[in-house]
Write a structure and sequence with these properties.
With 398 residues, the protein is an alpha/beta fold. It contains 15 helices and 15 strands.
Amino acid sequence: IERLPESERARLRGLGMDALAQGAVAVVSLAGGAGSRWTKGAGVVKALNPFARVGGRHRNFIEVHLAKSRRVGRMAGAALPHIITTSYLTHAPVAEFLAREQNYGYPGSLLLSPGRAVGLRLIPMARDLRFAWEEMPQQLLDEQAQKVRESLHAALIHWAQQAGEGSDYADNAPLQCLHPVGHWYEVPNLLRNGVLAQLLAERPHLRYLMVHNIDTLGADVDPLVLGQHIARGAAMTTEVITRRIDDRGGGLARVDGRLRLVEGLALPREEIEFNLTYYNSATYWIDIAQLLAAFGLTHVDLADADKVAAAVRTIAARMPTYITLKDVKKRWGKGQEDIYPVTQFEKLWGDMTTLPGFDCAFVAVPRVRGQQLKEVAQLDGWLRDGSAAYLETLCAWR
C-alpha cells in the first residue's frame, strides 16, 4: 500500500473517507479466544489485561481499540459502530468490565457479539505429545535442566496414557475443560446471534466490516486501506505484513495458481512456514453483501434463525478442522497449580480464502500496523521497535 503513487493514494483515501462519513463501516474486534500463548493456560481474559503503559497509564486491549475507533470517528464526523466478539469464556467478564467502565465513554454503538459455538477439550494422544516434544525443534537446555524437562515430558505422556488418550478432558474446573473453537466462528456468530441484523437495521448504509484480532494493536480503520478494498470490489481483503522469525500462524502463498492464506497448522513441517514472505496479520475487510451471498443468505434471511444456522453449518463443513495442543492450568489450591497439555480443535477464518467464488484480495501493510502480540515476551521488542509510539498516534483517549 505504501508503494502506490501519491495521486492514487489520495484517490483511495478519499473513497475511504466518503464511506466513513456515510456510516458504511463497522469495526469487529475478535476477543472470544482463550489467548493461551499470552496467559500460559490460565483461565483469564486476555482482552482485559492492562498489557502496557499507553497514553500515560496502563491500558487493556479493548480500551486501546476503542480509542482508535474514537479517533477515526472524530476524523470522519461519524462515530464508528464497534463490535467485540466474545465466547463462553470471555462474555460475562467483558460485559461486566465495560459496564463498570461505562464503555470508556465511547460515543458510538458498542455491541458484544456472544459466541454460538463451544468445544470440549480432550486428553492428547501420546504419539502427538512425542511428536511435539521430540520431533519438532526445541531449545536445548543445560544438562540438568534438560533432564528435568525430559522427565516432565515422560510424566505427562504417562498421564495421557493413564487418563485415556483421546477421551474427554473433564478433570478440571468446567471452564478449563471447554475451549473456543477458533476464530472462523466469530464472524458467522454475528449472523447467528442477531448482532449484524441489529446493526443493519440501525445503520442501513452499513456495507463493510473491518475484522481484526484483539492483539493486532496497530490496526485501525485507515481510510487508505478501506478505499483500496472498496476500489478493488473484493468480498474480502486481507492485510499481510513481511514475516519475521517469531511470526507464527501461516501466511500468503500461491497454491494451484491461486493466491490464498495457508495456516501454519496446515503445514507438515514448521520450517516450511519460513519460506513464506508475507505473514497473515488477521485483519480483514469484508463486504457484507458478498459475505452473506457466500453463505447463501440475504439481509432478509438474517431474521430466520434456522436458515442462518443451516447456512453456517454448511460452510463450516467445507472448512478444514485443525487439531492442536494447548496448555491448561489445573489449580490444586493453596497456591499450587500444574500445567497440562490438552487437545482441542479449531477452524480459522483465513481458510475462507480457499472458498470457490469468494473473491479475496491481499494488501501488504507496514509491520507496525499488522504486528500481533501473542506472548508477553514480545512486549519488550514491541516497545523498542517503534510500534508503541505508532500506537500512540492512532488513539484518542476520552
